[in-house]
Amino acid sequence: MQNRNDSEPHGRLLLIDGDEPHAQVVAETLGQSLGGRMRIAVAAGGRQAVELLRDTGFDIVLADLSCLRDLCERSDDAVARLVRLADGALFVAVSDGASVSAAVGAMRAGAHDYVVKPLNGPAMAARIGELAQRHGKGRSLSIEPQAQGRSDYAGFIGASSAMQFVYEQIGRVATSSAPVFITGESGTGKDVCAEALHEEGPRRDKRLVAINCAAIPRDLMESELFGVARGAFTGAHDDRKGAAELADGGTLFLDEIGEMDLSLQSKLLRFLQTGTLSRVGESGVRHVDVRVICATNRNPMQLISEKKFREDLFYRLHVLPIHLPPLRQRPTDIMVLAQHFLARYAAEEHKHFTGFTPDVASLLTSAEWKGNVRQLQNLVRRLVVMCDGGTITMPMLVAADIESRGVVTPVEPTPRVERRPVILPMWQQEQRIIEDAIASFGGNVSLAAAALEISPSTIYRKRQGWAEMAAAS
C-alpha cells in the first residue's frame, strides 16, 4: 500500500481491461460512483499492468482475468505475480459467468475477491467500500460506504452498501437458469436469498422445493431427493416423487449442500449433467427441468481439501456465486433490522413499543452477533414477549438476553491477578503465529500461507481443527 501525502488522500485504482471502450465506461461510472475519491488508471493487459505497478503505488487493483494471458499462460499465475507487485493493495478479480474455475484460482493466488461481468459502477463502488472495511483498509483509503438505495428487497432488510451489492447480484442472476451457489454464516439469510432468486426469476409460477441436506438421515436422503418406486424397500407401498421431480419447471434449493454424503454427490453430479434421474428401485430414467440453488455456511474449498466435497460437483454448482455478509460487517443495518422486528412482533403480540433507548441501540450496534440476523431476530422477539411495551431499556435487554453466551449482556470485568508466565500448548502458539500472519496481510490467507511457506489448504485444515478444539472445550 502506497504512502500518500495530503494532496493525494483518497488513493489510486488500477483497472486492467483489454476492451478499451468498456474500460473507459467502467472507469467513468466507477469514478462517479466513488465521488471522485479515486484516481483511476487503465491497463490493457497484464504486461502494461506490471509496468504501472512498478512505477506507481496502487490501493486497489481490478483485474479482468481474460486479458492477463500476455503475462502468463495461466490466469492464476498472472494474478499471483500481480498480487506480489501490488504490495498489499486490495485485489479484485473479474470474470465472466463461464470462467468460475479461473476466478476461484485467482482467489487461491491471492485475490481478495472476485466479481462477475458486466460491472455495475455503483454496485462495484459499494463492493470496494465493503472490502476496504472488511480488510481494515477503509481508513487509509478514506472509503466509508454510505447506507443508501433501497432499504428492503425481496424479504431482505438493510440499506448498507453490502446489502445493496447483494440486491444487485440477485436481480442480475435471477433471470438465468444457471446454478447459484450461496455462501454465508448461519443466520445471514441464505434461505431468504434462495426464495428471492426464485420469485424474481422466470420460474416464479412453478414450485420452489427446499431440502435441508443436514437434517435428513443419510440413508433416506436419496429417496427424498430423487423419489422412490413402489416396492423398492419395506414400507414403499406407492410411487413417490422426490424433491427434484416436485420442483420440475421450478427451483430446487439444496440447503447445507456441504453435508451431503459423498456417494450421493456423484448421483447429484450425474443429475446436473444429464437432467435425468431414477427413483430408488427404478431402472428407467426421468427427465426433469429445474434450476438448482445450493447453500452452505462452510468454506467449500476447505471441504474439498478435506475430501468431504467433490471438486467436480463444486465447479458444476459454483457458476453464479452469491456471498451474504455477516451482520457485524454491516452495522448500519442492525438498528434498521431491530426496529423492523420490534414492529412486527409487537403487532403479533398486540403490544405497543416506541423503540430503543440510545444506550441499548449503541450496545446492539457494537455486538458481535455470531448468530447474525437470526440471533437479533430471536432477541427482539423475546423482548416483545417478556416486556409489556414502551421503550426498550437496558434492564429489559439484560433480562431478555438469556442465551448462554450472553452476547449483548454486560459482563463484569474479572480482577487482574499477578501470575507466573504461562507456556501455551504448541497448537495454540502455532495458531497465534498463523493468525498474526493472516492479519498482517489484511485477511488474505493465500499471501499469509506464502509468507509462512505452507499451503492455504493447511491453514484451512488447522483452522477447522482449532474450531473443533474450542467447541470441545
UniProtKB/TrEMBL annotation:
GO terms for molecular function: ATP binding; sequence-specific DNA binding. The modification 4-aspartylphosphate is found at D64. InterPro entries: AAA+_ATPase, AAA_lid_NorR, CheY-like_superfamily, Homeodomain-like_sf, HTH_Fis, P-loop_NTPase, Sig_transdc_resp-reg_receiver, Sigma_54_int. Pfam families: AAA_lid_14, HTH_8, Sigma54_activat. CDD domains: AAA, REC. GO terms for biological process: phosphorelay signal transduction system; regulation of DNA-templated transcription. Residues 12-132 form the Response regulatory domain. Residues 156-385 form the Sigma-54 factor interaction domain. SMART domains: AAA, REC. Keywords: Activator, ATP-binding, DNA-binding, Nucleotide-binding, Phosphoprotein, Transcription, Transcription regulation, Two-component regulatory system. This is Sigma-54-dependent Fis family transcriptional regulator. The lineage of its organism: Bacteria, Pseudomonadati, Pseudomonadota, Alphaproteobacteria, Hyphomicrobiales.
